[in-house]
């Protein structure tokens, strides 16, 4: 019997897997530089955290959670997103009593029972950042700028930013009612009519053409914002412009999680087909209270690592080999292996990326392995070299070869390592 990765999952394998690491690093670096501390929470939580936090009527909670009963009889769920866990941890550790905002970033695996397709998986990876406990438009703008800087640092040029405001608990109810009035007059199937009653904003996000066609005259949230929300949104937009970040206003952007208030945004890439969102986020001023905490106005985002690698591929950015080896050692015979092994260890301790041929293959096989490794140099050691106390350093691109005394190899390679 053989096994395969479960449907909707896949393995990151070398050399491509290096890009997943590169992306995780690049997307988190701007937040780390901006004072966000690292948080790591469990991969599973009490099921009620997500049903209450993410929202009972969302797709995530109604049909996408991996929920199981523990041996102790507790209902647990593999995390479908990161924000609810972060808020839970902040409340549990009482951080809201200290200096605000609390800035945190994280990275890890998330699980949703999705209809698997290109760019949409049941196990995927995100980098997230959250700023909790402060209602300041500069914080919303900061997070958006940090995400855009992360994408830009990877060389991505095609990331677009969609921006909206969903209002607050003062103005959203009236908008919700106006939207419901409009939607009740449309020709919709039963499931969608039910959604109009429970979560009408989500209907705006319906992708089916027959529904979309009827939504053209729908009331827009931006026309129903209260004065405070309007001013807040204007401030966010002004700060983005001042920081040189272009955005597109999208009054229909609602996003799939119930906890959003005011600022919402999404990062899109047009090279990805249907699953074009490479990241998204927004403000969630009510989430803490929803899960039993004090008022803790907050804002955050989650960026998809897998889709960001796909976006880089679409822009032709995966060509250069990431983190290539500096050298590949080729011992010719057993005595040579014994001599070259400590040299390889020494080179690695000196910070050089070095591999060697294993398995006692002949010269031809070992040189092929050296070529395939992508290393810049082969370090070849034969009996005559042992006698001479030197190693042949062969430039694999040009074929040039020089004998370098064993005691000088570290210095020699370090000199070339620029
Ligand atoms: P969300 O938590 O739904 O706002 O997702 C944030 C980002 O995570 C999205 O923009 C995607 O890039 C990524 N993402 C969400 N769900 C999936 C999935 N099922 N497969 C791959 N990436 C995903």
Q: What is the subunit arrangement here? A: single chain
| Total domain modules | 2
Q: Spans of 5+ residues with little confidence (pLDDT < 50)?
A: none
CATH class category of the largest domain: Alpha Beta
Radius of gyration: 27 Å
Tally the helices: 16
**Widest beta sheet: strand line-up:** 1-5-6-11-10-9-7-8
**What small molecules accompany the polymer chains?**
adenosine monophosphate
CATH topology-level name of the largest domain: BirA Bifunctional Protein, domain 2
CATH homology superfamily of the largest domain: Bira Bifunctional Protein, Domain 2
What structural class is derived from the secondary structure elements? alpha+beta
Q: Biggest β-sheet: count, sense, barrel?
A: 8 strands, mixed
Distance between the termini: 49 Å
Q: Count the strands?
A: 16
Architecture per CATH nomenclature, i.e. the level-2 architecture of the largest domain? 2-Layer Sandwich
Q: Classify the helix fraction into a percent range.
A: 25-40%
What coarse outline follows from CA principal-axis ratios?
elongated
Mean pLDDT: 94
Strand residue percentage: 15-25%
Give an overview in words:
It is a single chain. With 418 residues, the chain is α+β, with helices and mostly antiparallel strands. It has two domains: 246 residues, 2-Layer Sandwich (BirA Bifunctional Protein, domain 2); 91 residues, Rossmann fold (3-Layer(aba) Sandwich). Helices cover 37% and strands 21% of the residues. The strands form three sheets. It has an eight-stranded mixed β-sheet, sandwiched between helices. Helix 1 crosses helix 12 and helix 5 packs parallel to helix 10. The longest helix has 17 residues. The chain is elongated, with a radius of gyration of 27 Å. The two termini are 49 Å apart. One of its GO terms (molecular function) is histidine-tRNA ligase activity. Its EC number is 6.1.1.21.
């Amino acid at each position: 019997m053989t096994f395969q990765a479960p449907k909707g999952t896949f393995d990151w394998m070398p050399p491509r897997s290096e890009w997943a690491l590169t992306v995780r690093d690049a997307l988190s670096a701007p937040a780390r530089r901006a004072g966000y501390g690292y948080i790591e929470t469990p991969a599973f939580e009490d099921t009620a955290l997500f049903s209450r936090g993410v929202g009972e009527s969302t797709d995530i909670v109604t049909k996408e959670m991996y929920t199981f009963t523990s041996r102790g009889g507790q209902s647990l769920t593999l995390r479908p997103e990161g924000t609810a866990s972060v808020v839970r941890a902040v409340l549990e550790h009482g951080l809201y009593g200290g200096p605000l905002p609390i800035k945190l970033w994280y990275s890890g695996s998330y699980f949703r029972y999705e209809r698997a397709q290109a760019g949409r998986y049941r196990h995927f990876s995100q980098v997230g950042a959250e700023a909790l406990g402060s209602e300041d438009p500069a914080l919303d703008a900061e997070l958006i700028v940090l995400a855009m800087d992360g994408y830009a640092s990877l060389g991505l040029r095609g990331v677009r930013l969609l921006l909206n405001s969903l209002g607050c608990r003062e103005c959203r109810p009236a908008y919700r009612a106006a939207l419901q009035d409009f939607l009740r007059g449309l020709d919709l199937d039963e499931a969608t009519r039910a959604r109009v009653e429970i979560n009408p904003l989500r209907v705006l996000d319906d992708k089916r053409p027959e529904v979309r066609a009827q939504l053209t005259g729908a009331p827009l949230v931006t026309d129903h914002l209260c004065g405070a929300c309007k001013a807040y949104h204007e401030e966010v937009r002004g700060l983005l412009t001042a920081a040189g970040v272009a955005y597109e206003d999208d009054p229909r952007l609602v996003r799939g999680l119930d906890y959003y208030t005011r600022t919402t945004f999404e990062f899109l890439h047009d090279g990805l087909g249907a699953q074009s969102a490479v990241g998204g986020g927004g403000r969630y001023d009510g989430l803490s209270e929803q899960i039993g905490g004090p008022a803790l106005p907050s804002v955050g985002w989650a960026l998809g690592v897998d889709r960001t690698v796909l976006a880089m591929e679409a822009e032709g950015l995966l060509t250069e080999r990431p983190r290539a080896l500096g050298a590949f050692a080729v011992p010719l015979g057993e005595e040579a292996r014994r001599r070259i092994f400590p040299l390889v260890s020494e080179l690695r301790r000196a910070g050089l990326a070095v591999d060697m041929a294993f398995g006692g293959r002949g010269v031809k096989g070992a040189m092929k392995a050296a070529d395939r490794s992508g290393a810049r140099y082969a370090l070849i050691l034969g009996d005559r070299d042992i006698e001479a106390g030197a190693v042949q350093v062969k430039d694999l691109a040009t074929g040039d070869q020089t004998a370098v005394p064993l005691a000088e190899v570290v210095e020699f390679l370090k000199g070339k390592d620029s």
